[in-house]
Amino acid sequence: MLRAAGGPVPPDVAGRDVPATVPGSVHTDLLAAGLIPDPYLDDHERLVAWIGRCDWEYRTTFSWSPDGHDRHDLVFDGLDTVATVTLNGHELARTANQHRTYRLSADDALLDGANELVVRFASPIRYADRQSLELGYRPHVNHHPYNAIRKTACNFGWDWGPDLATAGIWRPVTLHSWSTARLAAVRPLATVQGNTGHVAVHIDIEWRGDEPSASTRPVPSDPAPAHDLVVTVGEHTSRIAVGPGETSAVVEVDVPDARRWWPRGYGDQPLYQVEVRLESDDGTAVDAWQSRVGFRTVRLDMTPDEDGTSFVIVVNDQPVFVRGANWIPDDVFVHRVDRDRYARRIAQAEQANINLLRVWGGGIFESDDFYELCDERGIMTWQDFLFACAAYAEEEPLRGEIEAEARDNIVRLLPHPSLVLWCGNNENIWLCHDWNWELQVQGKSWGLGYYTELLPQVLAELDPHRPYTPASPWSGTLDIYPNDADHGSSHLWDMWNQRDYVEYRTYRPRFVAEFGWQGPPTWATLRRAISDDPLTPESPGMIIHQKAFDGNDKLTKGLARHLPLPDDMEDWHWAMSLNQAAAVRLGIEHLRSWSPRCAGSIVWQLNDCWPVTSWAAVDGDGRPKPLLYAIAHAYADRLLTIQPRPDGLAVVAVNDSADRWAGDVVVRRLSYDGTELAATKVPVEVGARASAATPIPAEVATPADDGAELVVATLGDERALWFFAEYIDSRLTSARLTVQAEPTADAGPSGYRIHVTAENLVRDVAVLADKVHPDAVADDMLVTLLPGESATFHIDAPGGLDPDAFTAPAVLRSANDLVAAERGDRR
User: Glycoside hydrolase family 2 immunoglobulin-like beta-sandwich domain location, by residue (predicted)?
Assistant: First the structure.
């Protein structure tokens, strides 16, 4: 049961016991009890702001009888955040870190019969405020001092997230009864040399007499006999004996003919089961542990060269071009993200041809489910330590908490082969430089020691075979500007904030870990979350669900250079969605065209935590935005793109596949009506994991009429387009489409096929299927058709819908709609 225990509690909640769910949170329990509105809808975020300023108490009773075990521990996998744990009136612990696990001895407090467990949570907002004074002011980017508490930073609001400071038992709690000994920690360090895999399993053992505190319960004085540690990796087993005084051991297992784990697109993802058993002399298992490992090598190549400093992730000695996206918590209430939801989101990443997810430092150390699924699917992962956009005190008690959470999570996550990089922080070194934090902290610590000393030291001890970068962005040394595009990793935010997205092309970076453009959620999500009448780009609910500073103004300015600004709300929604997709696609194609100088791009961001206008490709209800399809096109294994180069236009073939790519590049300059005006053909051969640029002759690359001509390049099945004019300056006419819509028997009862043939040039054809049904999803969109060309879109949707609904003007969209409408040329 849950009860408010202090603070500004409304009368209808004060004094009430509310059924509580564990894992869970105060917000979701109050929501389930009908005591608060859904904070994701309209302006309800403001209506529930009082929750984070209150204290809360969880209480439960359970029966227990002496069971013959020597030890009994309460194990909390996650407490959010400032908690006092009491069992039968005995205080077991006071905690102040969401990112740690806690094992608490319960022997002194357990009773034969009924037992009462109480966990009281102090207000996270008031605690952070007090700590900010005790630790001393440190700059941050929020109206709450999230850097003074070890709690999910974005829980206090972000430029895409609501201010919903949570409290609760957010991960499972168990009573662990054990005898003789237990496996306190297991670290399987998997390496591979040639065809032989090797696992060195580092094991910490706690024995029954190793009490963490004095106990009134008798502990047997007779020494435990020798035990065996038995480790099995796949089909191979090793065994060693350990005596009762030995608290650590290393068991090594060789795996001949080990198959290597590869990122998706580079090979398979074989995983090997690891089982550790602590056995008594009669072969009985006293304790056991299991996980999976993969055999692969990984390193981060930051070699200085004539162009600066590289930033290349190398797996099994193979440089991997990162086609990535940033990951934030998939829900403000993170306990609601179960394995199925992770699986859906990772499937969407695969759909977008993504091979790496960066777990951003303002969120959480992600769950085992997340990493297990990435292991299985070959999605590389990059885990930030949890520091974001702020200065952090390096003194106690914060320093001890940070080291403890790092140790907890390094040990938990290190078995996963998908984890290829640890990162010290998000943007803190860069912001210290650009925002002159050293002046603001006035000689106090600001976190640098964590990133350059503490974290690398702990990693060297616990996880020595995985690379670490002190920050993102990071130039390789403190002597170079932290966000220098020529050195290491960089973040490109000046386009969104001050410039135009075409200016991505002014950079030739070595690696980009963040860049992006905003767009609204899908229409179905928008209408579910916001009930404004009328709904406009600036109606109250829209403003509440736009958290970026000057976000709507930046959207408008960013659109006006490319597309007309519509007055109709549905046209505005489509225009902003299309512009977001166009911006990011241009950025990705530009970055990939400079490989191998540029070794990766990580789009901000894959997912959202609630319904909001943001940089995400998948909105807060889990629906793909047009951006996801644009990313899929730009991240395809084989990309053909036309790019400006100092001497004119060039066709760049990017081959991120294992096979050579050869053939004739055919380049044509066409008028919008399809008439060929000039052409050339050049043989091209691109090796595996390589790229090649082919200059376009001036007679093909030079238009007679910018607004009515384009260049089309083809190489095999791949095609690239170059428009000389922006949408708004082009002479696109109203889309003339012949459309056939029908159910698809071959796709089962929930499939529809939309076949489209263009009579004229139609840019960026899309079926916004969620406008027909919230669960309807198209397999592709943003397809440009030349006159006479056709495309087929497959829609996954519930049966019984009218197929023609997918061809309605508000559903079947194109860029032509917006440009032609501006001139009064409407369908």
Answer: 231-296
CA atoms within 13 A on the CB side of 315: 27
CB of 253 closer than 8 Å to CB of 198: yes
Condensed to tens digits (0 to 9), the pLDDT of residues 121-141 reads 999 999 999 999 999 999 999
120/123 Cα distance (integer angstroms): 10
Using CA atoms, how far apart are residues 377 and 366, in angstroms rounded to an integer?
16
Per-residue tokens: 676:
């060929």
Q: What is the pLDDT of residues 176-203, one digit of tens each?
A: 999 999 999 999 999 999 999 999 999 9
Contacts of residue 399, defined as CB under 8 A and 6 or more positions apart, other chains included, come to 393, 454
Q: How far apart are CA 419 and CA 45, in angstroms?
A: 35
Residues 770 and 783: beta-carbon distance below 8 Å: no
Matching residue, tokens 């990796």: 233
Question: Kind of pairing, strands 71-76 and 102-105?
Answer: antiparallel
657 within 8 A of 688, measured Cβ to Cβ: yes
Rounded CA separation 738/789 (Å): 11
Rounded to two decimals, what is the model's pTM? 0.96
Q: What is the bridge-based pairing of β-strands 2-6 and 102-105?
A: unpaired
Is the CB of residue 300 less than 8 Å from the CB of residue 469?
yes
Domains of the chain: 2-175 (2.60.120.260), 180-212+223-293 (2.60.40.10), 320-633 (3.20.20.80), 638-729 (2.60.40.10), 737-822 (2.60.40.10)
Q: C-alpha 641: how far from its chain's center?
A: 27
- The Cα 364–Cα 386 span in angstroms is 7
pLDDT one-digit tens code per residue, 707-750: 999 999 999 999 999 999 999 999 999 999 999 999 987 655 67
3-17 as b/e, with b when 16 or more CB fall inside 10 Å? bbbebebeeebeeee
Residue by residue, DSSP assigns 743-771 as E-GGGGGGEEEEEEEESS-EEEEEE-GGG
pLDDT confidence band for 209 (50 / 70 / 90)? confident
Side by side, the strands of the sheet bearing 690-695 are 638-645, 648-655, 690-695
Cis peptide before 644 (omega within 30 of 0): no
CB 238 within 8 A of CB 189: no
Sheet holding 783-785, edge to edge: 783-785, 762-767, 812-813
DSSP code per residue over 388-432: BSS----STTHHHHHHHHHHHHHHHHTT-TTEEEEES-BSHHHHH
